[in-house]
Amino acid sequence: MDSGKSDNLTAAFIEHTAVIRVERRGSFKISTPLKQFIHHVVDTHSASRIWLDMSDCTGMDSTFMGVVAGLACLIKSRSSFSFKLLNLSEKNQKLLTTLGVDRVVDYSMTATDEEKSILSRQEKEAEPLEPDSASKLEAAETTLEAHKTLVDINPENLPKFKSVLEFLREDVHNLHQE
């Protein structure tokens, strides 16, 4: 069933906006590069708006949603930035709602005319964000932090992720020992 394409991120800077396109699944594979890129944008003030174009996103795992929730909370604490998911499918909206991520992230099912204009330029100017740029430890820490965020924003998530959190804490501990 896999067409050979893997989960992927591309990014471009257009009119004070960092536009990141999520291709295929929003997954743990691309979560660390997404987090690194957005932290870089915020740290360097290279854009005031950060948009995730979700039009090509076929689904999301819990790590990706936890990273998005954490990034949304970080950016909301900084008044000079905005963060938004655009072109969210009904399926992906339901996923966000299931874990309570919709409570902390701004999103729209369709883009405005201004957003469409900027998104149309993204493809020509986009650079790939490499998914394998993170060490095993950094990826494990990102995954642990993402799941902690999901529990922080919605305590009802604890039963769903309790064993995952225990496993990830152990994994991070073991990787620190290496």
Estimate the helix proportion, in percent. Answer: 40-55%
- Counted by DSSP, the helix tally is 6
Q: What would CATH call the class?
A: Alpha Beta
Low-confidence stretches: none
Spell the H/E element sequence: EEHEEHEHEHEHH
**Counted beta strands:** 7
Shape from CA axes?
globular
Percentage beta strand? 15-25%
Write a concise keyword list for the protein shown above.
globular; Transcription Regulator spoIIAA; alpha/beta; 178 residues
Describe the model.
The protein has a single domain (8-132), classed as STAS domain (Transcription Regulator spoIIAA). With 178 residues, the protein is an alpha/beta fold. 38% of the residues are buried. The mean pLDDT is 92. The chain has helices at residues 28-44, 62-76, 90-99, 113-125, 136-153, 158-177; strands at residues 8-14, 17-26, 49-53, 57-60, 82-86, 106-107, 127-129. It is built from 6 helices and 7 strands, in the order ββαββαβαβαβαα. The N and C termini lie far apart (37 Å). Strands 1, 2, 3, 4, 5, 6 and 7 form a 7-stranded mixed sheet that branches.
